[in-house]
Design goal:
201 residues; Methyltransf_Superfamily; SAM-dependent_MTases_sf; methyltransferase activity
Length: 201
């Protein structure tokens, strides 16, 4: 498996052709998404966004978390991914929006929580991307950076070695979050998931 590229055009070129079969590659990830959303704990009745939502795997879980009085938004840069999310019925639980994580279509402080699976490794400037996520969250808003496998398992899957400059390593992601206005609350980098929880300063 190749390492996905960064940048808007490269990301679309990589994910567009893979959208229709994306969930078929990893059919057993659902419970890990459910657990990560539970750990994020978006407030009932709140406004939550899944940034880089892809096919929308987390959207039903986010809807369950905020309840019928809440608002769920799914944002992705790849039209094919959003089309697949809609084909799977996820437009019934969330508004699906075409958008770039570096320039989100939300006012400042609009969100109570952000869920982002696999996002940071695709950002050309991670601090800028994390800063934009902080901008759209209210003070005290929460962030979950998630991947359904840990860093070591993902590296093996991609046929590469872990290196000290890996952005998602604890010292590096902590520094990036801090620079972007977040406080790192918890990190879980086990075999079966990578989850960072953070709060807007």
């Amino acid at each position: 498996m190749s390492v996905p590229p960064t940048g808007l055009a490269a990301t679309r070129a990589f994910f567009g052709p893979r959208a229709a079969t994306w969930e078929l590659k990893f059919p057993d990830d659902g419970p890990r998404y459910r657990r990560a959303v539970a750990d994020l704990a978006p407030p009932a009745g709140g406004v939550v966004a899944d940034i880089a939502c892809g096919t929308g795997r987390a959207l039903p879980e986010l809807r369950d978390a905020v309840g019928p009085g809440g608002t769920v938004l799914g944002v992705d840069v790849t039209p094919e991914m959003l089309a697949e999310a809609a084909a799977r019925g996820r437009h019934r639980v969330a508004a699906l929006l075409l958008g770039d994580a570096l320039h989100l279509p939300f006012r400042t402080g609009a969100l109570d929580a952000v869920f982002a699976a696999g996002l940071v490794s695709h950002l050309p400037d991670p601090v800028d991307g994390l800063r934009e996520l902080a901008r759209v969250c209210r003070p005290g808003g929460r962030l979950a950076l998630f991947h359904p496998v840990g860093r070591a398992a993902l590296a093996r899957r991609q046929g590469r070695e872990l290196t000290p400059d890996d952005l998602r390593a604890e010292p590096n992601i902590r520094a990036a979050l801090t620079a972007a206005g977040w406080r790192l609350d918890d990190i879980d980098d086990g075999e079966d998931r990578y989850l960072v929880l953070a709060t807007v300063h």
